[in-house]
Specification:
Elements lengths: L5 H12 L5 H11 L5 H14 L3 E3 L7 E3 L7 E4 L5 E3 L8 H4 L14 E4 L2 H5 L14
Parallel strand pairs: 3-5
Antiparallel strand pairs: 1-2, 3-4
Length: 138
């Protein structure tokens, strides 16, 4: 059993408390209470915990990677206005990998699907009818 350092515990606890935070958000929250922790330490721990499977790193096209405490395969929804990331309440479709065909015999090993839309808060702010999206640039 690998023993967790205080830095690992701080990172894990912060990811647990926040909803799909970016590395920079995690760093800011931790340094608010522990100003001596370095950015490199936070980023290194995030990388190591993602590699070990303790956290899930979620790549957001056009945005910063986010970190998730839920490590089982699942999908995400991203607000096109504020950029918030939420879990999509859709069962993981593992069998979709079996039907993906490519022209050169590419073998699919895993997949991530991100749904883009408008979160509840932004919809309530009447962003729904606007054509531009600051979070995605389009």
């Amino acid at each position: 059993m690998v023993r967790k350092t205080i830095q690992q515990w701080l990172v894990l606890e912060t990811v647990q408390r926040l909803c799909h935070p970016s590395a920079e958000e995690i760093y800011r929250v931790i340094t608010h209470k522990y100003p001596s922790i370095s950015r490199g330490t936070v980023y290194r721990n995030l990388h190591n915990m993602s590699e070990s499977g303790a956290l899930k790193q979620v790549s957001i096209p056009g945005g910063a990677d986010r970190f998730d405490i839920t490590t089982q395969p699942h999908y995400h929804a991203v607000c096109k206005y504020c950029g918030c990331v939420q879990d999509a309440m859709l069962p993981y479709q593992e069998q979709i990998q079996d039907v993906v065909l490519t022209c050169d015999g590419f073998i699919v090993e895993k997949h991530d699907i991100i749904f883009w839309g408008v979160c509840k808060e932004c919809a309530q702010k009447e962003h729904v009818g606007k054509k531009t999206s600051p979070a995605t640039g389009g």
